[in-house]
Specification:
Largest sheet: 2 strands, antiparallel
Helix content: 55-70%
Radius of gyration: 18 Å
Strand content: under 5%
Number of strands: 2
Shape: globular
Number of domains: 2
Structural class: mainly alpha
CATH superfamily of the largest domain: Ribonuclease III domain
CATH architecture of the largest domain: Orthogonal Bundle
CATH topology of the largest domain: Ribonuclease iii, N-terminal Endonuclease Domain, Chain A
Amino acid sequence: MNAERARREVALTDTDKHGDRSQSLADPALPDELPFMLPLAPLAVMSIQQLPPAALAYLGDAVYELYVRRFYLLPPKRLQSYHSQVVAQVRAERQADHLRSLMPSLTETELEFVKRGRNAATGRPKRVDLSVYQQATSLETLIGYLYLTNPQRLVQLLAQLEFDRPI
């Protein structure tokens, strides 16, 4: 069943502008376990390693929040409730907790990106301790890196995180 779902493609047709042509949007190589992510053209590893950690953290922040939003989507609730639950999980303190829980599971390469993210967090945070801010940025950097290089590994790590149960 999963193989069948992976082969399905989504096509868009814009007959007004382009006649009867379709463009495939699905990437059959992506497993079903990545429903919260959009398929992307792969980037060269060298290109990714040249990205500044702040750019990876910027991307990782968005991916992490999208994952958390999807986690709390069901059961349906009022928007304020969605917002409250998500904000509680995307706060720097919670991200720092998540990073600490993942540390024993990380590879040498992943630990290197965690270190790069920590060193990139140089601003003076307003409401949290600098070390908490650095850990949160490290997690976001790691998520951004894995999103671009190894989405399956990202899913494995995200599955290890413990979130408060949806209400």
